UniProtKB/TrEMBL annotation:
<keyword id="KW-0040">ANK repeat</keyword>
<feature type="repeat" description="ANK">
    <location>
        <begin position="108"/>
        <end position="140"/>
    </location>
</feature>
<dbReference type="Pfam" id="PF12796">
    <property type="entry name" value="Ank_2"/>
</dbReference>
<keyword id="KW-0677">Repeat</keyword>
<dbReference type="InterPro" id="IPR002110">
    <property type="entry name" value="Ankyrin_rpt"/>
</dbReference>
<protein>
    <recommendedName>
        <fullName>ANK_REP_REGION domain-containing protein</fullName>
    </recommendedName>
</protein>
<feature type="repeat" description="ANK">
    <location>
        <begin position="141"/>
        <end position="173"/>
    </location>
</feature>
<dbReference type="InterPro" id="IPR036770">
    <property type="entry name" value="Ankyrin_rpt-contain_sf"/>
</dbReference>
Amino acid sequence: ARGAGAMGASCQIEGKSEKEVLQTLGASCASVSSCAAVSTAEKDSKGMLNQRLLAACRENDIAALQQAIEQGAFVETRRPFVMRPTPSTVPASLLDTGLRKKPHAPREGLTPLMYIAQNGSVAGTQLLLQARAQVMARDEDRLTPLHFAAASGVLEVCHILLGQGADKGAADEAGRRASDLVPEDCLRTRKERDRWEALLGPRATP
């Protein structure tokens, strides 16, 4: 009798009609499908949000950047923009031989902070750092946000990054430090050269 009672307790569909059993199973399957659909939708929504953050940083759209951060975008995302920015938007010093992007390399693509530093945006840099963006992130050529900031020629952005822990001695794959990527236009006078050297150190390359 005890065995029979245990059996009855473990099999709740016993005694139900076939129609009732099918309805119960159907409801369970519908619930699982619904949860899966919600999960997929959430992932798609997050991906679009991250895409908006990257687009805002590439285009130097500070309002859109702030909105994406407030909505929870991942500040270290590198997708879906995994290709190197077009030559027209990249400083010439970052397009020299040995600095071109390699397709399908590890850490492919730029982070939002790299894009915004490349644009020389003080406001954008501050927003991303407040959101805890990684100041020492590397791309596939081992370029850091400070390299991009130096190449933009905006001394204040470099100063902000250094204040948050950027390493001015960090070298990329070609052995270049941030100081080596400062545009020549920013070094025309002795005063300008002294300012950059005081911040980033001397250039390792002529």
